[in-house]
Amino acid sequence: MPVERGGCDVYETEPADLPGFLAHFRPELPKVLVRYNVEGSASDNREQRSRLAKVSQAVRDSGGRFLFELLVPPTPEQRNVPSEVFDAEVRPALIHRAMAEIVEEVPVDVWKLEHLGAPEHYRTAADLAAQNGGECILLGANAPADTVDGWLTDAAANGFTGFAIGRSIWWDSLRGLLAGDLTRPEAIAAVAANYRHFAGTFLQ
Prior knowledge:
This protein is an alpha/beta fold and about 200 residues long. Helix content is about 50%, strand content about 10%. A five-stranded parallel beta sheet has the order 1-2-3-4-5, covered by helices on one side. Helix 4 links the parallel strand 3 and strand 4. The mean pLDDT is about 95.
């Protein structure tokens, strides 16, 4: 269950009464989405860690597990690097550095991470999480199915425990339903087939 205000460059908690919200709904995995680049604004990163430490404590006090979705947007300087180079060679190290920096102040149970390129990058992330009692799952980034299959295969073979894929599973089916190109049973069947496909890829 999300507990962040959407679309913020600097994390903001929503709702304001987080302990009351968690006590009412009792979600197993309260989740934050955080944009965090260790080479970005030091003051913004420091403020985010301070806010997120309070969220993590509230989640654990409620009996939940803290799910942290980490996105690493490029800084203005990093945007000069070709996107494919940033994705494969620059961002994985930034993710690892962010995990290590964040967990010094913010206990995390589940890291939800972008794809990490080379298999060894997945293993490093999984090991970093495990050192503090956490685990890693993979997000899908609305990528094509064959691309996600490759990410899932590498993640599963290198210590990731699952995935949290959304649009790659249901986006086309939902558009087809809303456009009248698919019936509701057809859309449901397509979503289920996509989910089974990705689950099978991860578990093979």
